[in-house]
## 1
Amino acid sequence: MATQKPPSWEKYWGLVVVFSRFSALFMLLGTYKSFGVLMDSYIYDLDTSAAEAGTATVLFFAFVYFTAPIFGVLADMMGSNGARILIMLGGIVSTIAMCLSALSTTWYQLAFYLSLAGVGYGMVQVPTVAPLLMYFTDKFGLANSISAAGGAVGMIVLPPLTERMIDNYGWRGASMLLGVASLHTTVAGALMRPPSSFKEKRSYQQIYGKDDAPQDGTPYESLTKVKRFAKLMQEQLSIDVFRKRPRFVVYQFIFLLAGVQFAGWHLFLVPNALSQDIALFDAAFLASIGGIGNIIGRAFNGPLLDHNIFSDAMLFVLIHLVCALSLLLDPLATEYPLMAVLAFWAGLTIGASYAVTIVIAKNLAEEEKYIMAAVGWTHFFMGFGAVIGGPLVGATFDITGYYHVGFLLMGGCELLITVCTFIELMQRRYTQDLRGRYLLM
């Protein structure tokens, strides 16, 4: 992907791209957070357990992230309009799948349709980063923070709306309406036009070969094209980044742990309150309170990083330390005001963590050719953690009858993230100091 700056007038369209990503992430995270409001309906209407319902819903998040490396690479391979095409297609797929989920009669069917919806949103999640890289080469951290805040706004708006839709139309009607709303993602994708300097389309020559492109409109045989495409996919997935970047491997384990907490908190914040006899509207409003914190968390980290007030790793440490405390204090939250305070701080730190994670993945890549692959692999391992987190928290409730145990386990994961990141940071600084002393000798 080229990195030359676009003409100055196109920076105005960069603001449209920021808003488009904001809108797409609004639907993605808002929908996922709404599953927490739908959770009890899934459990009772489909006659299933919390662990099974948690598994079905977490597959949505997991497939968003599992497919991230593939769609991130495809967006890069397909040229300047690749991300735009994938986002538009993803909006259509997620709309169809969410509408079909309303027809589920077993948790297996629900899991299948939500997995398909996750694939649709997987076409959205990472590809929306590509247009930002095109327009914001110097202020990527700020642009990423502002656009990523769309997910937080979705957390504020959609869960209470979902609760009202359940009251009026039942959970099936609410699912259908969420599906229809997902079609807005297609509009957002259409607005993500690339700057003029990126209008070249590279996939044709990459698949056919630079010197062997078909002449006179005669295409290569299908098998030849498939082989070239497969080879290119292997190269673009940049699996060698795991060998060449040891820090990248360490952080993938850290991001896996973050996925455990991310999925568990989003899915079971509302059911946790409902289990303590909090009314559905008040429980759903906790998601909105967390969303407010999420907006603040996603917004403040950009200036801190762009002005070098904190390094990305140190900010990551501080964020997850605060998050650990908000989760570990959950057993003490027996009254609504304390639940609201903890929801706010958890939402703030989760929002900040995600935004910083994208910046860390970008910096870990070091070379431009690895950036989209690094972001994709980061989402993949977070998705893997989500597959653990959702069923784990649900299973602890099935066994103990309380969600507190699951929240304590998530808090433990956050402490482990803090320790691992801090050790890696100190080791890297120590190595840099040794190199500096060696050069001065």
## 2
Amino acid sequence: VFGGAPLPLEPGGSVAAVLSGAAPPPAIPADPDRLFVMGCDLSHLSPAVQFATCSGGVFAFTLVYGYLQELIVVTLCGRKLSLFLATVQFGGYAIWSAWLRHLSPRPVRTKGRVPMARYLRLSLLRAFDLGFTNLAMAHLNYPAKTMIKSSRVVFTMAAGAIGQKKRYSVAEYVTVCLMAAGLVIFMNADAKTSAIFAPIGIFMLIASLCCDAVLSTNSEQIMKTYDVGQDEFIFNLYTIALVSMGTVTILSGDMAHGLSFLLTPGTMAEIEAGSHPTWSPLGKAVALAAFASTGFFGSSFAGAITRRFSALAMSIVSTTRKATTLFLSFAFFPKECTPQHMLGMVLFMVALFVKSLRAGRKGMKMVKSSAALTELPR
């Protein structure tokens, strides 16, 4: 999508129009056969090329995002400045969503506007979600965080079975038990071998998962009820979240500490120890900018796969990407990997893959008929 000959945009949606401050593209009726990714129209490409482009984008951007997240949180910031990093992420998401909203054709609005109070509630949920996730990384290693964040189905089924007396199939129980077993085995290995492991990190991620579940449900409902486009919804959501998270970051003092860290050469450990710096302020700024951008780009490609193909296709791509992320984390960053770690990861990823296949097959028809089922960037 980026690099090479530019792909055709809608009339009035060129980059030049954005730079010159021209009006955004006119509202047009929604066309389910059109595929836009990052403001570029991929509809003229064959389905195979579309899928290869989108899945390649998911892998490239999300793998880089995962690497940068661990590099910045663990190596550069020393597991500190969690709120500052969340504000940087929201800033990147708000800027890119504004750019994407300007480039993409606007669908014809047929219903009323979304009440600001609903946007505010969802933005606060997203702020809590990202804030808890970043704070948890001060108490857990990156692979543990990734696995817990990928296990929302375990908590969803447990809450449904206990609180709402829901019934699930035997296959669903087996899948969830396998996933839980893999998670427990991995966490037990991490608790024995890792210097960074505290139960409070697990509780923070559970709180993050709860916020994410409520946000996902309400986002779909709002987009259907008010016929609001994904680009407009994401722009409003992250702009408000940026304001709220930025306010909390300033009041907590994390903003001043973060800016001081950014302008001082070296990692957090080097600054505190007064040792020779290995990172320049420019290098840290570039890493933060790439971190705030790649997550948004990857989720945009993921949303395109879901809308154009199916939840099943996206589930397979996402599960493969998560497995690759876990192995790359052990490969690039120093941490002990025991046979118990490997067993836990294998059990978890097998269960996640089976769950993704089942969920994807159930959701194929629904996704193809509803543009509301999109994946928001994180």
## 3
Amino acid sequence: MALDFAPRILRVSARAFVSPLRGATGLEKDGGNPVTIFLPMMANDDLSDGSSVSAEMTANCRSKLAQSCTWESIVIELVGVGCNNKKNTSLTRFRFYMPSGEEISFCGHAAIGACAFLANQSSILKAADLSSIDFGTSSLPSSIRFSAEDGKYDALVRGNEVELMMDTTHVEADCSQMENAPSLQDFLSEIGLTTDDVQLQANSKLGYQFPTYLNSTVARPKTLICIKSEERLHAATSPTDATKFHQMCDAIKSTGIYLYSHAGVQLSEGDESVFECRQFPKSSGYAEDPATGIAAGALAASLYKRGIWFDSIASEKKNYDMYQGRAMQRPSRIGVKIGTYDEDGRIALSYKGLVAFDSFEYTD
């Protein structure tokens, strides 16, 4: 039976897809996309040994918790039954929320953060200083399986690094062909750019036509726009009129604009395909997103579909690294690996990211 309230709630503040320090060990300070993880508990639960099963809550109660957050949040229900050391056959359930209290079907960085927490909850809840947690270096990952509104998912967790697997359908739509759609220039004007900043023609050096003004989705539609240089990418500003921007996104059935630049990609053998990205969401309660898993996945899928990747070693799987959040001083890295992609758009992909934990508290 779902509770309209929980006698006790664990609230964990984390950041997912944190960028590692370049040329050094450790993580970028303040990097990653913030997520609040909620765990509703029965009154006498003790989660520090990793063995507790959480309570279920009503939608109204979950929504109120979400509205107390500045960024996305996740409510974990039935915890303790989706890990590889548990015998219960029920699946841990993830419920994803926007700061407005709206429940959404999936949120990549929230799922990454929650999986890292479940695999490390004993260490986290016993730590005196979360910044110095020893996540260990075991070569054997923890396996997490969970359900969400749109299906079941598996993740592998090694310390604070999570690889989340997804089998889905990739769908594209050319925004310029949509009836009564705003123009590409209309969107660029809202974020301080012009068509001179956009890579509209095939790259003369590489010969690739990068997708631009294209809706791409592996979960929710994101509109891809290829920018000529990282300098111009970071010259973009938040939408000047949030209401107008929301309406424009609705007109092309998009949940946000995903700018990306391929400038500076490494072409030597074995290097992954590297892109610098920024996302301006339609309506998330904030103007820009520091790391957007489903947008990175959509971009990787559209690039892969066009044969665009730069790791030249023979491999059936293609890897992409999407860097995001640098303009916000929240440096993030989203790893995306494409496994299979068939002629009907069915795609197997995985997300890889590092997670940092900032604080936790219990509320009664």
## 4
Amino acid sequence: MAEEEATPLRIGTRGSPLAMAQAFETRKRLQEAFPELNEDDAIQICVMKTQGDMILDKSLMELGGKGLFTKELDTALLGNEVDICVHSMKDVPTWLPEGTVLPCTLPREDTNDAFIHKDGSVKTIAELPDNSVIGTASLRRQAQLMAKNPTFKCVNFRGNVQTRLRKLNDGVVDATLLAIAGLKRMDMDGCATAVLDWEEMLPAVAQGAIGIQCRSDDEKSLKYIGALNHAPTKACVDCERAFLEALDGNCKTPIAGQARIIDDKIVFRGLIAMPDGSQKFEITKEGAIEDAKVIGRTAGEEIKAEAGEKFFEMMVEMSPQQVLGQITK
């Protein structure tokens, strides 16, 4: 009997330059770990468009928030069209579709935000003149920016990194903020005017992290991606996502959260704010690495109690147009 032809490992990914760079990095790591995956056609990259990629003239909040960049990939995974999916972890909802798991997080890139000025003459957010126009689709960034200077005007700024930088160069806005991780993965970090520390701009939950998802009963894929998991990164991301889950976070609520491992402990810092930056609540927690999820969840519960029910009721009641009205007034 002829030997059965080996089936390729199919990687599902979005088609943006950043998503493709992340898929290529995953392929490279798989090939380094498993020699058999260096054979011709042993790995197949399957590109697909998500709703978030196709509708660029609306904010993520108006489109419905989380899951906009993952639903189509989830469907392909559950339909056995792909074997694994590569995600920017900040795009992944805190819940996963039944029958799927996300057991692998690759070593994390720098998590900070990059500040990019149109001509580089302004080096920090604090130096921006009053009434500066800043392009960003992130309520997290908008809230922190406006907490620093309420005269700033933040405008919806979507599209891939190249599109946003082109708009900046065309003078559509005075400045923008992007994750330095994405710029580094595309060898574009030279365009950053400055990299902001956590005091200036606390990053998004799971920013800078790549996660790999597969079907829960797919032993072959579990073996492959399990070998790539970076335990320190996964602990930090699990902590941050537990914080987000405790807050029932969505794209109408500006939420930031970051964890680091320092002296064999996990140190977490979280933030929630009103979209216009008029109210802001912050929290810091630390503890044993094995308690990462508990630390994140506890931080979420405590900051939720501090902000009070009225804060979250206002968020739920506000329409996307009302939230955006606070930003662009």
